[in-house]
Amino acid sequence: MQSQHPIIILGGTGRAGRAIATLLLEHAPVAVVLAGRSRERAQAAADQLNRTVPDRVSAVQVDVTDPASLRAAFTGCRLVIVCVPFTDHAAQHVITAALDAGIDYIDINTDAAKHRVFAQYASRMQQGRSVLLTEAGIIPGCPALLLRQAAQECEHLDEVTVGSLMRDPQMPRGSAADIVAHAGTPAQRYQDGQWRQAGPFAHRWLDFGPPFGKRFTVPVTLPELHALPDTLPVRRLVVYQAGFNPVLNLVLLLWKLLGLSRSARGRRWGIDLFLWANRRFSSPPYGIVVLLEATGQRAGTAHTWRVVLRHTDVYVATAIPVVAGVLQLLDERIARPQQGFLGHLVEPERFLTDCERLGLRVDITGSPR
Q1: CB neighbours of 13 closer than 8 A, spacing ≥ 6?
Q2: Matching CATH topology for 7-134 and 142-314+360-368?
């Protein structure tokens, strides 16, 4: 039976928003509201989806910087999925409006300001019934969940390596903004109970499998992983990211070394340069790969465990974990109230099963060494 309370997608006309809407309509008995800055674009996207699933998609114009616009859009909804980057005070406006409406919340962006808002409203969240999941795509999103699953496979984790590779020449500005902001964060590695800054020239060759093969990678920081080693038996953990193309890699390196993230103008320059270099110099193959390799002990025997997530479309791959998380929300598999990273709160085994069913390729291998 179709839910009477729809799911609203902020940024529903973008690539990630459209992919999420499509998967939700295929795999869940829900109605969807596409929200965007342009009423005309949102309605055109809704009309296109309604040709396949009649009368389940509607459209609304929303300004995420306007609290009144958000309150009106959230009225009667059960969940908001945020597929737009937060600027100015948008994080506070969107999260506050969701709490006022008493609805669930999921986002896919990496904005740091939202975590300050979550901390500010922590006591209020505990007084309600909402579940608020943050950074719910494939990366960020899945690495924390894969680490939790690895801890179930190995009683003691000696070394864990997380790697990611992303290739898409048509990334929109919002995605570029997330990547540029992330590139400005000092990389860290976990060793024997402490996070330490990774050396400026630390690198590793990782095998991402066909069609990408071995790629040069550098350490990066993923906030979703920082809280987990304290609760999981991990001795060493490092996250690596492959480059995009030689020109774009140089742009990101210079942008980081010059500290351009310290100013709004520098961030704009970084985003503009990213978009130009990505579109001008990227070449096939395209797609996304996220992997985790773990070595440890199982039943007193040395054990290895490796999982690889892959898809040919970066934005479909981003949408799949979001929808897998929504399915657990709809089934009340996540305790209420709750706020945190998606990878911390969903059930790992069902999540990976659902991701595979939704179209993500999931390859898992494990054996004694």
Answers
A1: 34, 36, 38, 41, 42, 45
A2: no
- Which CATH fold topology does 7-134 show? Rossmann fold (3.40.50)
Residues 61-120: tens digit of each pLDDT? 999 999 999 999 999 999 999 999 887 789 999 999 999 999 999 999 888 889 999 999
Read off φ and ψ for residue 82, nearest 5 degrees. Answer: -100, 115
Domain boundaries, the chain: 7-134, 142-314+360-368
Give DSSP secondary structure letters for 24-55.
Answer: HHHHSS--EEEEES-HHHHHHHHHHHHTTSTT
**Mean pLDDT, to the nearest integer, of 174-193?**
80
DSSP type of residue 76: T
Residue 73 φ/ψ, nearest 5 degrees: -70, -35
CB 150 within 8 A of CB 292: yes
Residues 6+ apart with CB under 8 A from 69: 61, 62, 63
Q: Report how far residue 171's alpha carbon sits from residue 63's, in angstroms, rounded to the nearest whole number.
A: 22
pLDDT digits (tens, 9 = 90+) for 7-57: 999 999 999 999 999 999 999 999 999 999 999 999 999 999 999 999 999
For domain 142-314+360-368, the CATH superfamily is Dihydrodipicolinate Reductase; domain 2 (3.30.360.10)
The predicted model scores a pTM of: 0.92
Element (H, E) at 218: strand 214-220
